[in-house]
Write a structure and sequence with these properties.
By secondary structure, the chain is an all-beta fold. It has strands at 4-10, 20-23, 34-39, 47-48, 76-82, 85-94.
Length: 103
Amino acid sequence: MPFTWRINIKKNPNPPPPAVFSFEQTPQVQVGDQVFWSNDDSEAHWPAVTGNPTFFMDFQIPPGSTSSSFAPSQVGTIQYICSLHPGETGTIDVLPTPAPVTS
């Protein structure tokens, strides 16, 4: 069963920027899980893979809003940037879905 993961975007507590991207809990993201961003910063952000700003979502995330969700389809590490602030980066490590338990 897919799980939903939140990545929080927060203002850097030690200015100047960049903002800080962090999972709400220790991530164990698997293929097919849902991932979304919650923008708790005072600026808009737009997580994307380099060269493809719409990889995760079609539009930037306004302050105080959440993004649409993204479901990884492959195992591996997804490195992303904020297409509005290229110094802001993050990663999503996608694990394989475990085999079903049989009795």
